[in-house]
Design a protein that fits this description.
By secondary structure, the protein is α+β, with helices and mostly antiparallel strands. It is built from 5 helices and 17 strands. The longest helix has 31 residues. It is elongated, with a radius of gyration of 32 Å. The two termini are 27 Å apart.
Length: 426
C-alpha cells in the first residue's frame, strides 16, 4: 500500500526520448520568382531528411516504452487488470506526444487510492490484516508452520532448612515439544470493502518428556485442529495524516481433539473452547516503508469438561468441571519495507497477555500467560499473482515457543470483475 515511483521514472525516460529535435514549421519567406521556387522544390534538404528519420526513431522508442509501461502496470497489479493495448500512431509533433504519454499515466490501472506499490508489499499487508483483497479476488494460501518449545521443571517434595539445604525429594524433568502445523486458508474479496476468510488447521504434534532418571516418554498426534472463520471491513483509506483503518471479527470452533478427552492418549490439537476475537488494524505509509499496528481482544467462551476428581481413595474417579478460560489482549507493531517490486521485508513484535483460567470458580495455578515474540519475514513475487512468504520468529518469554518458522504459498484467482490475462514477459 505504498505509492511507488516506478511509473514516473518511465515517464522521465519517455520525456528523454521525446527530447529529440521536433519538426519545426518553416518560417514564411518573401515571395520569389517562379523559377527559383521550382528549383527549391526539386532540391531535397539533407537536414529535413535527418529530422524525419529522427522523428520516426523517436516514435518507435515511445511505442516501445508505452508497451513496457502497460506491462509493468499489469504486473504491479498482480495480473488482475487487462493490460492496455498500444495502438500504432502516426508521427506526431513533440508536444502532441507528451500529451499522449501523460494520458497513459493518468489513466493507469491503479485503484482510486493510488496506494498500491508492489504486490510483494501488498501480500505482506494482507497476511497481517492491513490490506484487503480486491472485490472478486480469491486467494488460496497454504502455510506450513513449525514450532519448537522446551521447558525444565524442578519439583521439591520436602522443606528447606537453609537457603542451600533442602530436605526431601527433588525431581526434575525436561519437556520438548515440536509442532508441524499446516494451515489451509481461503480469502475472498467482497464488495463494499469487505473480505471473508476461512482457515482449516491440521498437523502433527510430538511431546517428549525426560525425567531425572533419563527415562524418556513421548506422545504424538496427527489430525484436524480448530477451524476458524472471519470477516474484515476497511473503514478509512489513508489520506493526509489519517491512516488506513480495518476491523475484523473471527470465530474459532472446537473441531480439534482437546486435552480433556481422558479416553485418548493423543496430545491435543485443539483448545477445547470456542473463542470470539476482534481486531483493529492501522497502517500508514512513508515511502518506501509501511508501518502497521494491530490491537486484538479474544474472548474464550466457558465450557464444561470431564476432569479427574483428585480423590486419593479412588484415583479413577472423575467429575464435570466448569472452566472459564482467561480472555486475552494482544497487540502487534511492525513495518514492511519494499526493496523492489518483487521483494519486501517485514519486522514486527507480537505481544499477548492471557488471564488466569478458573475451574469451578478457582484460579488454576500458572495459567496466567505472557507471550512475546520478535518476527522477521520476507515476501517474494515469482510470477503475477503467485507469492512465497517466509516468516521467522523468536520467543522471548517463557510462555512463547522458542523457535517459530513458517512458509506460505498463496495463489490468487479472479472470480468476477477484471480477469487475469497471460502476458509474455521478455
Amino acid at each position: 500500500m505504498l505509492r511507488r515511483r516506478v511509473l514516473p521514472g518511465l515517464v522521465v525516460l519517455l520525456a528523454a526520448a521525446g527530447s529529440l529535435p521536433a519538426q519545426t514549421t518553416p518560417a514564411k519567406v518573401a515571395p520569389q520568382t517562379q523559377e527559383v521556387a521550382k528549383a527549391a522544390a526539386l532540391t531535397k534538404d539533407p537536414v529535413d531528411l535527418k529530422l524525419q528519420d529522427a522523428l520516426r526513431e523517436r516514435d518507435a522508442i515511445i511505442r516501445n516504452l508505452l508497451e513496457r509501461v502497460n506491462e509493468l502496470e499489469w504486473r504491479v497489479n498482480g495480473g488482475f487488470t487487462t493490460p492496455a493495448k498500444v495502438e500504432e500512431r502516426p508521427t506526431l509533433p513533440a508536444s502532441s506526444t507528451s500529451r499522449v504519454i501523460n494520458s497513459v499515466v493518468s489513466t493507469s490501472t491503479y485503484d482510486s487510492t493510488e496506494r498500491q506499490a508492489t504486490e510483494a508489499l501488498d501480500q505482506a499487508l494482507i497476511l497481517r490484516g492491513g490490506l484487503l483483497l480486491p472485490s472478486g479476488t480469491l486467494e488460496v494460501d497454504h502455510t506450513t508452520s513449525y514450532f519448537s518449545a522446551s521447558s525444565d521443571h524442578v519439583t521439591v517434595n520436602g522443606f528447606a532448612l537453609l537457603p542451600v539445604l533442602v530436605v526431601g525429594d527433588i525431581a526434575s524433568e525436561r519437556i520438548r515439544e515440536d509442532y508441524l502445523l499446516p494451515n489451509f486458508t481461503a480469502r475472498l474479496g467482497l464488495p463494499h470493502k469487505f473480505q471473508g476468510d476461512f482457515t482449516i488447521p491440521y498437523g502433527y504434534e510430538l511431546i517428549r518428556t525426560v525425567d531425572a532418571n533419563n527415562v524418556q516418554t513421548s506422545s504424538s498426534s496427527f489430525g484436524l485442529g480448530d477451524i476458524s472463520a472471519g470477516v474484515s471491513r476497511q473503514f478509512t483509506v489513508e489520506h493526509g495524516k489519517v491512516p488506513d483503518i480495518l476491523a475484523s471479527v473471527r470465530f474459532k470452533s472446537t473441531t480439534g481433539k482437546d486435552a480433556f478427552n481422558l479416553q485418548s492418549s493423543l496430545t491435543a490439537l485443539g483448545t477445547g473452547f470456542n473463542a470470539l476475537q476482534g481486531n483493529l488494524t492501522l497502517s500508514k505509509s512513508s515511502d518506501p516503508v509501511v508501518f502497521f499496528g494491530n490491537l486484538s481482544y479474544t474472548a474464550n467462551l466457558p465450557g464444561n469438561h470431564t476432569v479427574s476428581a483428585n480423590d486419593p481413595t479412588n484415583p479413577s474417579a472423575t467429575m464435570v468441571g466448569h472452566f472459564k478460560p482467561g480472555d486475552a489482549v494482544g497487540f502487534q507493531l511492525g513495518s514492511i519495507l519494499a526493496l523492489n517490486p518483487e521483494v519486501s521485508m517485514t519486522l514486527g513484535w507480537d505481544q499477548r497477555f492471557t488471564r488466569s483460567t478458573t475451574l469451578n470458580g478457582v484460579d488454576i495455578p500458572a495459567s496466567y500467560l505472557v507471550e512475546g515474540a520478535l518476527r522477521l519475514g520476507t515476501t517474494y513475487v515469482y510470477a503475477p499473482g503467485k507469492t512465497i512468504d517466509l516468516s521467522f520468529g523468536v520467543g522471548l518469554t517463557p510462555d512463547t515457543p522458542n523457535l517459530q518458522f513458517s512458509v506460505g504459498v498463496p495463489f490468487r484467482f479472479g472470480l468476477w470483475g477484471a480477469k487475469p490475462k497471460k502476458l509474455d514477459v521478455h
